[in-house]
Design brief:
The chain is of the alpha/beta class and 600 residues long. The protein is built from 27 helices and 18 strands. Belongs to the helicase family. RecQ subfamily.
Length: 600
């Protein structure tokens, strides 16, 4: 077996593993089944690609989208690795190449959709072809608790068994405790090795703004990112088309993408976004999963996302190369009403609707967080961190007040009702509502009944979300949305700690006086550096000539490293981030020509 560090350098051109990668790679090489939860951009693909090259046999990768398969196959071939895919977009010649390569034992990585693998004939053929690793990407789709459950993914446990209970690695960026347990139950007979390598993406700047002049707020954000690639998510097809037109008229290279467009037009716009620089994709959530473009410099939400998991997944499409990237989410009461209406009118089971309501509540709590947004976001996934210094609340601050008394009222209501009730019941107690449930449980006799009459229900909802965001209470998603106290909440209830809460989210947006700042993402090379622009132009030309996404040639991180190091020899070029032997042989001459011209 070849040393994985040697493969990492010689094939992929990386000097070292990213955090968490090496121990997963070594677990796979030791023959263990693995469930890996890693943040977007942490290099999940390498965790199955590298072990494949370190030993004999074929790896089958389950992938949700044809476009992703195509791009991954192209990227692997550029690294000099034999790869292919089984999907409905293949022409007969490509299918023959794949079948011959698998039969001859030359194929190392084969991508396939879950639907294709559900075909018994396909799995029987693969079972005879020396498959020794099954890799399941976007594994949260397996679980009914996942935010993007797909029925075809639920069949993968049977696929694995038909392949002889082959060694399996399942990977995802978003899986809470309930989702992780469901994935394990559906895929594995025995408990796999679990790796949770954090949800933090420190290179992403997080920002949220209540809508005041939404179009103006969005354009102000985009003005900081002229000539950079990014995504703007909209809540409807019509909003997508209108915003794409407005941005085009304002001088942006903006393209729409939504499920109502013809497939050919969607594919063309996606290819332009992947192959060219400075393109803004204005899209519904139909765009995103499997879009492996590492140099997306910003993601904006023109309206509130579907849930906190969806928000995390969507902003995670920015900055996958590790360089600074920017995010902005605009939200308003109309967005919240729309999301709640979508949940109630969906065909989901009552239990699933309940979970979706709680997920939406968690997202609204993030919008109204009284402290560092990254702390609030990571707390949802069970992690703690220090204030990040890279979100709007850390940078700009908030209008706040001593909310200890308000927090104690909420905490007292939770404790006095046995930590068994959800938001609306608790708020009813605080404002003194004599509802049927409150009277039935005798909660109108509690000392906390009516102690919050001085505030509206909406204010109490906001305050409850804030103390949740501040870590005073926990939400049991799988237990009817009941609230429980944390140790910090107990300390506040007993008067041992104080808590600052936000006042600006309790008043009308028109009355807000929040400070604004425009903090530019820093880079070692400015985005308008002439050398960097010329290197990007060459990359775009080569990507078009070869019919592949631009990042397959080189990522932004590699080009920035070139522009910073300015190598003029092949040896120096080989020291650039992401330049392995295959890319050194293939591209050194073309890029060195540009580098030497600028050196002269």
């Amino acid at each position: 077996m070849i040393d994985p560090r040697k493969i990492l350098h010689d094939v992929f051109g990386f000097p070292s593993f990213r955090e968490g990668q090496e121990e997963i790679v070594r677990a796979v090489l030791a023959g263990e089944d693995v469930l890996a939860i890693m943040p977007t951009g942490a290099g999940k693909s390498l965790c199955y690609q590298l072990p494949t090259l370190a030993r004999e046999g074929l790896t089958v990768v389950v992938s949700p989208l044809i476009a992703l398969m195509r791009d991954q196959v192209a990227a692997l071939r550029h690294f000099g690795i034999e790869a292919g895919s089984l999907n409905s977009a293949n022409d007969p010649e490509e299918n023959r190449r794949v079948v011959d390569s698998v039969r001859d034992g030359r194929m190392r990585v084969l991508y396939a959709s879950p639907e294709r693998l559900a075909n018994t004939g396909t799995t029987e053929w693969l079972g005879r072809s020396g498959v020794n690793l099954l890799a399941i990407d976007e594994a949260h789709c397996v679980s009914q608790w996942g935010h993007d459950f797909r029925p075809e993914y639920a069949m993968l446990g049977d696929v694995r068994r038909r392949l002889g209970s082959v060694q399996t690695i399942a990977l995802t960026a978003t899986a809470d405790v309930a989702t992780r347990g469901d994935i394990m139950h559906r895929l594995f007979e025995d408990e796999p090795r679990l790796f949770i390598h954090g949800f933090d993406r420190p290179n992403l700047r997080l920002a949220m703004q209540a809508k005041e002049h939404a179009r103006r707020q969005l354009f102000s954000f985009l003005d900081k990112h002229r000539h950079e690639s990014g995504i703007v998510y909209c809540s409807s097809r019509d909003a997508t088309e209108r915003l794409a037109d407005s941005l085009s008229q304002a001088g942006y290279r903006a393209l729409p993408y939504h499920a109502g467009m013809h497939q050919a037009e969607r594919a063309r716009n996606q290819d332009i976004f992947l192959q060219e620089d400075g393109v803004v994709m204005v899209a519904t959530v139909a765009f995103g999963m499997g879009i492996d473009k590492p140099d997306v410099r910003f993601v904006a939400h023109a309206a509130l996302p579907k849930s906190i998991e969806a928000y995390y997944q969507e902003i995670g499409r920015a900055g996958r190369d590790g360089a600074p990237a920017d995010t902005l989410t605009l939200y308003g009461l109309d967005d919240m009403r729309l999301r709640r209406l979508q949940i109630e009118q969906s065909d989901a089971a009552d239990e699933q609707k309940r979970v979706e309501r709680q997920r939406l509540n968690a997202l609204v709590a993030l919008c109204e967080a009284p402290r560092c947004r990254r702390q609030t976001l990571l707390a949802y996934f069970g992690e703690t961190t220090e204030p990040c210094g890279n979100c709007d609340l850390c940078i700009e601050g908030v209008m706040s007040f001593d909310g200890t008394i308000e927090a104690q009222k909420i905490l007292s209501a939770i404790v006095r009702t046995g930590e068994r009730f959800g938001t609306e019941h608790l708020i009813g107690i605080l404002v003194g509502d004599e509802t049927e449930a409150i009277l039935r449980f005798g909660h109108d006799k509690l000392k906390t009944f009516g102690v919050g009459k001085d505030r509206s229900k909406n204010e109490w909802r906001s305050l409850l979300r804030q103390i949740y965001a501040a870590g005073l209470i926990g939400l049991e998603l799988a237990e009817y949305g009941r609230w429980t106290l944390t140790d910090k909440g107990v300390a506040v209830l007993k008067g041992q700690e104080r808590i600052e809460l936000r006042s600006d989210v309790l008043i009308k947006p028109a009355d807000r006086r929040r400070r604004r700042s425009r903090i530019e993402a820093e880079s070692v090379v400015p985005s308008d550096d002439p050398l960097l622009l010329d290197l990007k132009a060459l990359r775009t030309r080569l990507a078009k000539e070869e019919g592949v996404p631009a990042y397959v040639i080189f990522s932004d991180r590699s080009l920035i490293d070139m522009a910073a190091k300015r190598p003029v020899t092949a040896r120096g070029f080989g020291e650039v981030h992401g330049v392995g032997q295959a890319k050194l042989d293939r591209y050194a001459d073309a890029f060195l020509e540009v580098l030497k011209a600028h050196a002269a």
